[in-house]
Design brief:
- The protein is built from 10 helices and 13 strands.
- The protein is α+β, with helices and mostly antiparallel strands.
- A hairpin with an 8-residue loop joins strand 8 and strand 9 (193-196).
- Mean pLDDT is 82; it is low at 319-325.
């Protein structure tokens, strides 16, 4: 019998391989295991929902990042953040050390002999947070023809750096490749009709939600992902919405929940103007798309709500014969 003792961690649930080695080069399959009546078995649907709900009770960004140190934090990002958020600390930062600023912001603790950084400090102020928190990057893929994934014509782009910078850089890129204003004139009307191929507000909210609710921990093994197609953009993150949240209320923007998986990150995004953080992100997205004349977004959830994909379709103009003339 092989007995393995593992140190308890702050992140749940954990995944382990179904078998200890691959056979014939087959990829190992990982599952969540639970202790049940003196034996271990793979978690069923209800157990998985319960574990996911428990994992959301503690904000990941509030935990200590034990493999990062103060030398991994860039002061320039801290100062930019304080200035942009109009923090009272901005007027005093010249006379304070980096350690003092992080302590005052509640992003670090004094440990025994060394400073302990919280995950939020690494997410916001490290040049490469993915070196300490796996998969803390943004992956994008752009397809150029209708074959989509079956085509050889696509480009990949990765965004690194502090997550708020990733968010801005990715949004700027999406605006450059997707967002165009269309002007449609009519013979019988003085004012022309104007609309956007993609409303920026809707894309911003979907992207911000992906960053704020992403599980930045080792068991997810997935980065926030953006896939750009000819007629739509898909934004995905893991895991999905909380197990106790009503799905129908969520997709209609009526969930009314202000609970964020990473509450400090959500507060930072709000302070930086990247998100409303009022629990109304979905309703704002729906309103923005409706105002633009675009079709409603689509929401897809993976099994056990372990992932969420938001699809926003581009608006294509189909006017009347009178308008086309």
């Amino acid at each position: 019998m092989l007995h393995v003792r593992c140190r308890a961690s702050e992140d749940i649930p954990h995944r382990a391989p179904v078998r200890l080695s691959s056979h014939g080069g087959a990829e190992l399959r990982y599952e969540v295991w639970v202790w049940y009546n003196s034996h271990i078995e793979i978690a069923n649907e209800s157990e998985m929902e319960n574990l996911l709900m428990r994992s959301q009770s503690v904000s990941f960004d509030d935990n200590v990042c034990r493999n990062a140190s103060i030398k991994d934090i860039h002061r320039c990002y801290v100062e930019d953040y304080l200035v942009e958020t109009r923090s009272p600390l901005a007027e005093k930062m010249d006379g304070k050390s980096l350690e003092e600023l992080l302590l005052a912001m509640g992003m670090a603790d004094n440990g025994s002999g060394s400073m302990l950084l919280r995950n939020i400090a690494v997410l916001l102020f490290s040049e490469r947070p993915d070196r300490f928190i796996p998969y803390t990057r943004t992956e994008t893929v752009r397809f150029y023809d209708s074959l989509e994934e079956a085509s050889d014509h696509f480009t990949e782009k990765f965004f690194y750096g502090p997550v708020w910078k990733q968010m801005r850089d990715c949004l700027d890129w999406l605006q450059a490749v997707l967002v165009e204003e269309h002007v449609v004139k009519s013979r019988n009307r003085v004012r022309a009709d104007r609309y956007w191929s993609y409303p920026v507000d809707a894309i911003r909210e979907a992207l911000a939600n992906a960053f704020m609710h992403q599980a930045y921990n080792s068991y997810s093994y997935v980065s926030p992902e953006v896939r750009v197609y000819k007629d739509r953009v898909e934004i995905s993150s893991v895991p999905g919405i909380p197990a106790d949240m009503d799905w129908n209320s969520f997709i209609h923007g009526k969930a009314g929940s202000r609970i964020a998986r990473n509450r400090h990150l959500a507060e930072a995004f709000k302070s930086l103007g990247l998100s409303s953080n009022t629990g109304e992100g979905i309703s704002m997205m729906l309103e923005s798309l409706e105002k633009n004349g675009s079709r409603p977004p689509e929401f897809r959830s993976r099994n056990f709500r372990t992932g969420l994909t938001v699809t926003i379709y581009g608006r294509s103009y189909v006017g009347s014969a009178e308008q086309r003339n």
